[in-house]
């Protein structure tokens, strides 16, 4: 088999990476977030929990009875625990939809109030409203703001409108990990190609 080589000027070469994977969420880094799930009859609230934390909520005996056939061979992405105590593994799709273990599709709205499942990681919690922040700086900024209000005092629309600025602020200050895995591409000579754009599939 002949082999073909291309000599390139590495610092001036553009490249695109495909199939870049997101960092894996482990049981130790699992988080939960408040959500509202829309059913035909009504909307229900609860917690959306990273699936990696499921052993803390589902016993092995209960797990063995679960059938993930509705998820087309993929493992669940999350566990929902509704406020009435109902639990269901779900597969979250893009665009605000999820499929539950019965195969029912529901719209899901994220309401914020993200915190780690491992409570020792929630160091920056507001003592007044119980919201968790990624750093002391953002906690102090929150305390000074007019938005220190308990979740029970906020309606769904207020919870939703509060979520976005908090997420944006955390990303801006580098307090949330970007959901991509940085990679570098080397030429055969070991020179690192210059990165111009990032694509995540
Ligand atoms: Zn507060």
In short:
With 201 residues, the protein is α+β, with helices and mostly antiparallel strands.
Largest sheet: 6 strands, antiparallel, barrel
The radius of gyration over CA amounts to 21 Å
Question: What's the helix-strand series?
Answer: EEHEEEEEEHH
User: What is the tally of helical segments?
Assistant: 3
Sheet-strand content, in percent, reads 15-25%
* Overall 3D shape: globular
Proportion of residues in helical segments: 10-25%
Structural class: alpha+beta
What is the CA-CA span between the terminal residues?
Answer: 32 Å
Whole-number average pLDDT? 84
Would you report the number of β strands?
8
Low-confidence stretches: none
Number of domains: 2
Hetero groups in this structure are:
zinc ion
Strand order across the largest sheet = 1-2-3-4-5-6
Description:
The chain has a six-stranded antiparallel beta barrel. Strands 7-8 form a two-stranded antiparallel ribbon. With 201 residues, the chain is α+β, with helices and mostly antiparallel strands. Strand 5 and strand 6 (105-116) form a beta hairpin. It has helices at residues 60-64, 136-144, 156-172; strands at residues 31-38, 43-50, 78-82, 87-92, 97-100, 105-116, 124-125, 132-133. It has three helices and eight strands; from the N terminus they run ββαββββββαα. The chain has two domains: 29-118, no CATH class; 123-201, no CATH class. Zinc ion binds at residues 126, 128-129, 131, 142, 148. Zinc ion (ZN) is lined by residues 126, 128-129, 131, 142, 148.
